[in-house]
Amino acid sequence: MNVTDAIIVITGASSGIGRATALACAERGGTVVVSARRSHALEQLAQECSNLGGNAVAIPADVTDPDAMDALASGTIEKFGRIDVWFNNAGVTVAGNFDEVPPDVYRQVIETNLFGVINGTRSVLPYMREQGSGIIINHSSVLGKFGASQFSAYSTSKAAIIGFSESLRQELRGSGINVCLLLPAAIDTPIYNQAANFSGLGVKPVEPIYPAELAAQEVIGLIERPRAEVYVGNSGRAGSFARKVTPFAASDRAIGTTWEQDHFTPNPADPSRGNVFEPDSNPDHAKTSGGWPVSEGSSTPYVAAGIAAAAIPAAYLLRSRSKK
Ligand SMILES: NC(=O)c1ccc[n+]([C@@H]2O[C@H](COP(=O)([O-])OP(=O)(O)OC[C@H]3O[C@@H](n4cnc5c(N)ncnc54)[C@H](OP(=O)(O)O)[C@@H]3O)[C@@H](O)[C@H]2O)c1
Questions:
Q1: CB 119 near ligand 1, within 6 Å
Q2: Is the CB of 108 inside a 6 Å radius of any atom of ligand 1?
Q3: pLDDT of 19 over the 90 cut
Q4: What are the angstrom distances between the C-alpha of 213 and each of 16, 67, 220, 289?
Q5: Domain residues of the chain, as ranges?
Q6: What is the pLDDT of residue 186?
Q7: CA angle, corner 271, sides to 154 and 195, nearest 5?
Q8: Residue nearest to atom 19 of ligand 1 (CA)
Q9: C-alpha to C-alpha distance for 311 and 246, rounded to whole angstroms
Q10: Cβ–ligand 1 contact at 233 (below 6 Å)
């Protein structure tokens, strides 16, 4: 599909990857319907998209509210007559050990990330079925491919999105509707600045950190050529590969240690419910970037680590076979 001709709905567009994607689509002359809870940020974004030559409308909606998702889909149809792409992107996160995170926060992370995707899909599917075409892009994460210490609610939600999307893709074979998964590694967005946090320490992304524009490019790529799943950032691809081919004890130790050490700053942080229930009011957190140092091109060591991790069990297998 050509982005220029597409009607594209984006949830969670008021900051980060959703915002970057709206701008990238607008640059190509596409039509975007931008949604999230922060209506002021959406209005500003719609204006920026128009300035870039795109066609943009803001429809505020909370993804945990099925009626609001229905209104987002029907509002888009009323305005533009069809929906070509629906990017289920909205998400929140919480840091802290499983038994330190309050149960209501834990549940709301899953409600937003997983049921947000399910609600959005339920709302758009009847229109896409009627059209006989469409692309649904569900935003998972490399943390959907493997769990990570102190982020169990987030990992749970992202793994479930993979299961949901794979089932849906099988059901929709031959319907003309594509279901795609986006699997980013760490991206420089405000998600870390507005995260709920019960860990006692400040939260930061695990390096290497990729720019939100890279994720937006991958979304454009999925619109032009839908695929089952795409990674954003080589470190995530290498990490997932290593996870598959390395014994659990070794990869649990590697991932657990990395996340416990590299996902936190040394600065103490008070418990916070972040933007899980209410949107963040800090205007700096309604930007594309979270102000984290982007380390493009530095993922080579991670790729090498992935290959090395694959080589260990492969060598072990070869050795045990040659002994037989
Ligand atoms: N940044 C990363 O490292 C990374 C890595 C892998 C995957 N992801 C995924 O990328 C997606 C976008 O996150 P981001 O990194 O761009 O972070 P972000 O800047 O915090 O964006 C999250 C977006 O979701 C919206 N949102 C949150 N709760 C919502 C709700 N209940 N209803 C509607 N919208 C809601 C937020 O806007 P409002 O507060 O205005 O509603 C915001 O627009 C998420 O699904 C995230 O899990 C991010």
A1: no
A2: no
A3: yes
A4: 9, 31, 10, 9
A5: 3-323
A6: 98
A7: 35
A8: 16
A9: 9
A10: no
Q: 67-81: per-residue pLDDT in tens?
A: 999 999 999 999 999
Count of Cβ atoms closer than 10 Å to residue 271 Cβ = 14
Question: Could you report the per-residue pLDDT of 148-202, keeping only the tens digit for each?
Answer: 999 999 999 999 999 999 999 999 999 999 999 999 999 999 999 999 999 999 9
279 close to ligand 1 (CB < 6 Angstrom): yes
Q: Which segment of 101-115, 122-136, 250-264 scores lowest on mean pLDDT?
A: 250-264
CA of 284 to the centre of ligand 1 (A): 14
Spatial CB neighbours of 286, under 8 Å, sequence gap ≥ 6: 14, 15, 38, 40, 41, 44, 190, 280
Q: Please choose from 87, 92, 204, 273 the residue to mutate so as to test ligand 1's pocket, defined by most ligand atoms within 8 A of CB.
A: 92
User: Is 226 within 8 Å of 215 (Cβ atoms)?
Assistant: no
Q: Does 189 sit in the ligand 1 pocket, CB within 6 Å?
A: yes
| Residue 118, both tokens | 């399910």
Catalytic one among 154, 192, 231, 302?
154
Separation of CA 241 and ligand 1 centre (Å)? 25
Homologous superfamily in CATH for domain 3-323: NAD(P)-binding Rossmann-like Domain (3.40.50.720)
154 a catalytic residue: yes
Strand partners, 232: 184
Which of 92-106, 174-188, 250-264, 277-291 has the lowest average pLDDT?
Answer: 250-264
Cα dihedral 46, 181, 133, 2, rounded to 10, equals 50
